[in-house]
Each structure stands twice: as C-alpha cells, then as structure tokens.
Amino acid sequence: MNARAGAAPVIGGDRLKKYVLHKLRTELPEGPFCLLYMHSTVQSDDNNPGMSILRRVYEDLPPEYKERLQILYFLHPGLRSRLAIATLGRLFLSGGLYWKIKYVSRLEYLWGDIRKGEVEIPDFVIDHDKILEHRPLTDYGIEPDPLHLADMPAVGYSLGRYEDKWSPEDRWYSRNYM
User: Fold this and answer.
1) Poorest-confidence range of 49-53, 58-62, 82-86, 126-130?
2) Is the pTM of this model over 0.85?
3) pLDDT for res 93
4) What secondary structure does DSSP assign to 124-161, as a single string?
5) Of 22, 23, 39, 30, whose CA–CA distance to 68 is shortest?
6) From edge to edge, which strands make up the β-sheet containing 101-104?
7) Where in this chain does the record put each CRAL-TRIO domain (predicted)?
8) Which of 99, 107, 96, 89 is nearest to 39 (CA)?
9) Cβ distance 49 to 14 under 8 Å?
10) What is the spatial distance between Cα 139 and Cα 122, in angstroms, rounded to a whole number?
C-alpha cells in the first residue's frame, strides 16, 4: 500500500475486494447493513478503484449479503464519478448495486443517515470535507480560484489615497472629462 500525505492510499482492486469480503464475514451483524465508500482525494490515474472493481466486489458477494445491503453511500463523489456512474452505471454495474448508490457530498449530510461516531472517518477525509466547505464548487470539478488569489492578504491602500498626489492639471482634467 502506498500512502501519500493528504491523499487516499493506493490499494489494488483484489486487495480491496478481499478486505470488503473479510470485513463483512467477520464484523457484520445480522440484518440489513450499508457500506460507506469514501471517494475523498481520489485521483483517476492514481488511486481510483473504478466501476469495474466496485462491480467485481458486489458480484462476488454471497446472495444473502446482496439482499441485506440497503445503501452504498458514496462520500465526496467527484463530477467525473457522478457522470460515469450516471451514464455507464446502468449498463456496467449490476442493477441491484446501481439503485443502491446514494451520493453524499459532505459529512454533515451523512450524519442524517448514520449516527456521528458510528463509523471512523480518516483525517484526510475530514480535511477534504473542510476544503469543500470553503470551496463548494470544487466537488463538481470547478476550481473557482485556481491561483488561490482569495487567500492573499488584502492590499492596505486604495486608489483614493493617491488622489491628492495628482497634479492640479490632472485633477482639473478628471473633474471635467471623466
């Protein structure tokens, strides 16, 4: 497993499938359940499991688990993921899984369905959620301030302070022609 600072760790598809199946077999109580997939800080070329892995994990579930799975929460879905699942999901994902996906753009919306503290949220997911709170269009693939100019300190002067340094001719011109 390769983990970069501030990013989701890179995990292979087979390892993810083994992990999910192991957790379900060893820790799942009886009755209906949900899964939480945290898509925070995923990069398509780097650590995105993709629909094919999600499909394989779901298809390899024993039938009783598929029936008991109520919802797959998809936390912090990016625009690309939403579009891919919306356009290709019906064809590519098993019908049962496609209709169980629920997109959750922020942690605060997840707490409406899952009690806070019932699931452990990694720090990088919490940090990503804070970024999205301050830049809400980022989760739709829109970076409104890519140069982060809004983070720069404000200039401590205004144009009006220099008005008294204009020459008398400039002031006469600006009053009469502007």
Assistant:
1) 49-53
2) no
3) 77
4) HHHHHHHHHHHSGGGGGT--S-TT-GGGSPPPS--GGG
5) 30
6) 33-38, 69-75, 101-104
7) 13-130
8) 107
9) no
10) 18
Say whether 74 sits in a helix, a strand or coil.
Answer: strand
Quick one: CA dihedral 75, 81, 42, 36, positive or negative?
positive
Q: Is residue 80 within 8 Å of 42, Cβ to Cβ?
A: no
The per-residue pLDDT for range 118-155, each reduced to its tens digit, is 889 999 889 888 888 877 666 555 555 555 555 656 55
Phi-psi group of 141: left, alpha or beta (phi > 0 → left; psi -120 to 50 → alpha; rest → beta): left
- Using DSSP's 3-state secondary structure scheme, residue 69 falls into strand
- Percentages (nearest 5) of helix, strand, coil residues in the chain: 50, 10, 40
Q: Which of 126, 119, 131 has its CA nearest to residue 71?
A: 119
6: Cβ–Cβ under 8 A, 6 or more apart, which residues?
41, 124, 127
Cα of 112 vs its chain's centroid, Å: 18
